[in-house]
Amino acid sequence: MRPALLLALFSVAIPAPAQFTLQTSNTTADLRGIHNVGNGVAWASGSNGTVLRTEDGGYVWQSCSMPPGAEKLDFRGIQAFDANTAIVMSSGPGDQSRLYKTTDGCHTWKLLFENPDKDGFWDAIVMTDRNIGMLIGDPVPGNQKSEITSVRDSSFVFPTYHTVDGGLNWKRNDHGRFGAHADQSGRPEEAIFAASNSSLLLLPYMVLFATGGLKNGVHYSQYFIGSAPRSCGYPCVIVSESSSSLPSGESAGGFSLAANYKLFDTDQATDSRVVLVVGGDYKQPDKAAHTAAQCILNKRESIIDFHCEPSTTPPHGYRSSVAYDPSIKTWITVGPNGTDISTDDGRNWHPIHPDPALHETPEADRNWNALSLPYVVGPKGRIGRLDPAALKH
User: Fold this and answer.
1) In a domain, 213, yes or no
2) 298 has which bridge partners?
3) 70 lies in a domain?
4) Are 151 and 116 in contact (CB under 8 A)?
5) Is residue 190 part of a domain?
6) How far apart, in whole angstroms, are the C-alpha atoms of residue 242 and residue 124?
7) Distances in Å between the alpha carbon of 81 and those of 52, 222, 254, 257?
8) Largest alpha-carbon pair distance within the chain?
9) What whole-number distance in Å separates Cα of residue 268 and Cα of residue 262?
10) Closest CA to 246 of 197, 191, 316, 294
């Protein structure tokens, strides 16, 4: 047989990889937490105390034992380290915001921490390694003194906590407090959406988070080690804010942040570092205007700040989660009405759709809440796996 003909037959016989592979979760819980550990291990979490785990790339998702007293808790975030160890965060008013940890493959759980603010509400948790992590919540009364305050006076602050012992103990960060925009009566006009555990981002010497509400933005602080501005005391923390360029309103704003570099990435040039924020109005999921923005890192002497500009061609609806795949230099964002990708650092987005030729269901690209590539999770137990190779074409 001629080589050209043989190659043509192989190209027909070998199917292209599917963009969206739907997986069986065996749960109807609303899933919002997902963390891919690697080597086939991933963890997911959701409503009604639900925690799931896979050790084989999603072929089988195992239901974990429920943490004690978690029957009515909504686990919006999860951070895992291997097949046996994970920390799960619930979001809810007051002590309904909790942290649990397992070290035996989710057979048993230990309650680590409950929200000490009766009116508080936790939104996101990030662990940079097995020991160090940060937690952030909605504004609470700023009744603790601080040497370093926000750029504006405010009676409400976004509380942040950190751990250095794997979550066993959490300490409130009183230096570098983040003040919340407030109305004339002093009540906060912004909050954080606990939509996908991706509203908080840790970068080299920086903490960033996105907010929503009547006034919203991208808040960030810069920590100085070594040389610092002369006007900055110790510990030197400069708190700043940039407009997110996203819609404002009680159900609108920024929902998710991602960067094209990582916390321990020191090789990438400063001028190529980009942070993207996505969101919109979750009550108007098909409204596409200003659903994403590109935030460029600017450096003024030793001080770093971000300037955010709306995408020229935004995602085609409200988006709750965004992620970056460095292997194909592609950004991916998901939401209720679909999935979009960008190959030019968020300036332009275009939708991707299920391919009937690959036997993908018509709804495979939508009804998603959160990303931890290649996994994506959504309501009613939806779990999918995105194929980066297929998304590239």
Assistant:
1) yes
2) 305
3) yes
4) no
5) yes
6) 20
7) 14, 27, 28, 21
8) 82
9) 10
10) 294
With respect to residue 140, please indicate whether it lies within any of the assigned structural domains.
yes
3-state secondary structure of 5: helix
Could you tell me if 196 and 45 are in contact, meaning their C-beta atoms sit under 8 angstroms apart? Answer: no
pTM above 0.85, yes or no: yes
Instruction: Give 127-173 as a DSSP string.
Output: ESSSS-EEEEES-EE--S--SS--SS--SEEE-EEEESSTTS--EE-
Report which residue type is found at 20: F
Structural domain count, the chain: 1
Q: In the predicted model, is pLDDT for residue 312 greater than 90? A: yes
Q: How far apart are the C-alpha atoms of 228 and 247, rounded to whole Å?
A: 35
pLDDT tens column, 67-106: 999 999 999 999 999 999 999 999 999 999 999 999 999 9
Q: Considering only CA atoms, which of 259, 295, 316, 334 is closest in space to residue 32?
A: 334
Q: Residue 182 gets which letter from DSSP?
A: B
Q: Which residue range is the domain that position 335 belongs to?
A: 18-391
By CB atoms closer than 10 A (0-12, 13-18, 19+), residue 319 is: buried
User: Which of 309, 310, 275 minimizes the C-alpha distance to 290?
Assistant: 310
**How far apart are the C-alpha atoms of 376 and 341, rounded to whole Å?**
14
Q: What is the pLDDT of residues 293-308, one digit of tens each?
A: 999 887 665 677 788 9
pLDDT in tens, 214-236: 999 999 888 765 555 566 665 67
CA distance 74 to 97: 9
- Tell me the CATH number at 274: 2.130.10.10
Number of Cα atoms under 13 Å in the Cβ half of residue 159: 23
Q: Which residues, including other chains, have CB under 8 Å from residue 365's CB and lie 6 or more apart?
A: 19, 20, 338, 339, 351, 352, 353, 354
Which residues, listed in sequence order, are joined to residue 254 by a DSSP beta bridge? 279
Determine the Cα–Cα distance for residues 15 and 310; give it in Å rounded to an integer.
38
Hey, how many other C-beta atoms are within 10 angstroms of the C-beta on 66?
16
Q: Whole-angstrom Cα distance, residue 375 to residue 372?
A: 5
Strands 330-335, 338-342: parallel, antiparallel or unpaired by DSSP? antiparallel
Query: Are the C-beta atoms of 169 and 342 separated by less than 8 Å?
Result: no
Residue 386 has phi, psi (to 5 degrees) of -90, 140
Q: How confident is the model at residue 150 (pLDDT cuts 50, 70, 90)?
A: very low
